[in-house]
Amino acid sequence: MTNDKCRMAHSSFSRAAFTLIEVMIAMTIFSLVVGAIYSSWDLIWRATRVSRAAAAQVQRQRVAIHTIEDALTCIQSFQASMKYYSFVVSEDPPELDFTARLPDNFPRNGKFGDLNVRQLMFTLEAGPDSEKDLMLRQRPILLDLDANEQKNPLVLARNVQTFKVECWDTNQAEWVTEWDNTN
């Protein structure tokens, strides 16, 4: 009977433990589950970064369009002084120049103090990585463009494919891409 008790104790002891193969299978399954969780997390993280970048790009586009719209609604014209009050649209190179009385919330307004009548120059220029950027330069109407504004214009939009402005010519009754006659 003592031998039977030993065998029972020994057999129950051996059944309570895991074999090396069972441990390795469990670790493999655990590794697969952790790998799947990490892959899902990494995919979610990448998608979040891409969606944030896309949302930021759309917001920058809205700001650029809103800036141009604000400026266009504030155009000033004075026939007796065409040197300071002109409206020029050019297709090659893409350019939009005019004078406007700008609101207090217009970009870089603090730089010019109380001088809110400014010449605005929207241009499409080569930027970093061979992309084209929509730039805004501005100067008070009676002053020259300062070196800092010339060197460091406000970048309204990066990687712009096309900047095209068309004007309705009442004489020709059609849209034109060049406008150098302020009248």
Describe the 3D structure:
The radius of gyration is 34 Å and the shape is elongated. It has three helices and seven strands, in the order H-H-E-E-E-E-H-E-E-E. The mean pLDDT is 84. It is an alpha+beta fold and 183 residues long. The strands form two sheets. The protein has a five-stranded antiparallel beta sheet with strand order 1-2-3-4-5, with helices on one face. Strands 6-7 form a two-stranded antiparallel sheet. The protein has helices at residues 2-16, 20-73, 147-151; strands at residues 87-90, 95-101, 117-126, 132-140, 154-157, 167-169, 174-176.
Short structural summary:
With 183 residues, the protein is an alpha+beta fold. The protein is 40% helix and 22% strand.
Task: List low-confidence stretches.
Answer: none
Number of helices: 3
**Elements, N to C (H/E):** HHEEEEHEEE
* Overall pLDDT: 84
Number of strands: 7
In percent, how helical is the residue content?
Answer: 40-55%
Outline the biggest β-sheet. Answer: 5 strands, antiparallel
Which percent band covers the strand fraction?
15-25%
Inertia-based shape: elongated
Using brief descriptors, characterize the structure shown.
183 residues; alpha+beta; five-stranded antiparallel β-sheet; two-stranded antiparallel ribbon; 7 strands
Topology:
Layout (H helix, E strand, L loop, with lengths): L1 H15 L3 H54 L13 E4 L4 E7 L15 E10 L5 E9 L6 H5 L2 E4 L9 E3 L4 E3 L7
Antiparallel strand pairs: 1-2, 2-3, 3-4, 4-5, 6-7
